[in-house]
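Exercise: predict the fold of this chain.
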Amino acid sequence: MGARQGSQAKDRRNRDQRAKDRQAKDRQAKAQIEESLLAELQAHVAARQIESGLACLASHEEIISGIDPSQANAARLLALLAIWSDIGFAASPSVKELLARFDSRSRSRLPISDFICLRMAQGMAAMAEEAMDAAIPHFDFVLSLPEELDNQFLLAIAYYWKGRCLRRRGDYDEALIYTGQGKDLALELGHPRMGAVMQVLESWLLFQQGKWKEAVRLSEVAETALRQTDDYVTLGNIQSFYGRMARREGRFDQAIEMFSGAIEHYRKRDPRHLNLARSLANMALAKRGIALQLQRRVDLDAQRLRKTSSRARKGSSVRAAEISARTDHRRRVTQLRREALEHLETAREIYRQRPTHHGLGTVYINAAYIHLDSGDFQRAEEESVSAYKLAAEKHDYILMGRARILQCMIENAKVEEGIGGGTDPGIHARRAFDFSQEAVELAKHTQHHILLATAYLWQGLTQCNSFFDNEEAARESYDLARAACGAAQPDSIWQDLQTLRARIVRKGSVDPALKAWSQGAVGEKSFRQISEEFAEIVIARVWEREGRKVSRVASRLSISPKKVRRILARVGRRKPRSK
């Protein structure tokens, strides 16, 4: 009996020892996050080997899910995991959940380099939630301690991420500085493909500053560097950039082609990728642009037909052909608007599955434009209100400004159509003006010059609508819009500037500026400024009298054709050339 009990006790001791051995072995395995794993993940980022990097992460899921503050290299792995989550790796647990494991007590025991890595991961987590103001201080902390971090690779990423945050806030000049520093550091480290990714953002920022040729050159260089990689998202971003540039220039067919190419790239990575939704929203705007062009043609044809029909009747076959052409155009307009709304609905579903305020807000705004074009003011208003609410939640000044401009447009449309008002016929006009003023103030929080120009433009169009009819104030808004826009005038801005100018400088009337100068009212303007404005007025009028021929104006006034073109572009009479 005693021998049996002794044997059982020995077995228990052996089992306990084996359990302890397993636990010790597990702890030892858990404690080891190999340098080779960190090096491999970093190398795949630098070379933009996306599939290889994702496969590496998938093969180390146990290590990732078991990240613990007590482990050596845990913070560095978390920083790299943040980079890969930004690229597209669906970490489980998420970076935010893993960060929660590092409480204040465990953080206080970390080496300073590891603590910096945690702050970098925190910045990415905030950026992913569109909390740019919360993310930037984390990146500032990382960038303030480069020697303590002692990792130039992570430092380059921190510069790039801060540039992205600043870009979203509309601080384009500062964003360009930080993005450029990140790119330069990546190139110094011998990572041209990693630098190319940053170059894509750099090119977009240059585009926002009106430096279109330089922006295209940088994008083409980046595309060449990345063409042989499987970084489909960045390649899609480049095509999307080309599409947005084409759309701004009014080349809508080419824009659609570029957005389609971007979508093909995104689908290779993920059929429901967030950037795919963004390209669908942009494609919807391009199709809206074609629909507006066709609608203008229909309106002009109808106007011309009304004039000719009262003087001379054409043959029935000719008239039938014209009516058939207009019918085809109307049918095409309807089809384009329907397709645009379908694109937006698909994008909306993607954003609902992966919520993003900016993306969903953009869908609301683009849908509102199409409803406004169709005369559905109620749905346009509902979409614009939804966009503003979403933008306000994240203090997204760019999106808030766009929403207010759109609401101004809707109210102006109601004024021109004589809709509503009841006992107060000026209610819609005043609401439009209030929205335009708020849009101006919101745009001033950013360096988005096109947004500011559009806000001033619609302030001017409101001031000279049928209710206010204030040409003097509208002229001031026109000048501010033109100054904000500069030479880089998108097609929509150029068209609207022409519309506003036509309203404030009516045919046969004396220019308000000339009236003011003749009475000695020059305000705060210098003689040089007055001379420049005088040249704009005279050259534009002579251009009209000389059959809109630049060469004739140059010969008539003895000035260079280049100066004539530049002044005509500045006053919105000719489409400016891209820089």
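Check your answer against the key: The chain has a mean pLDDT of 87.
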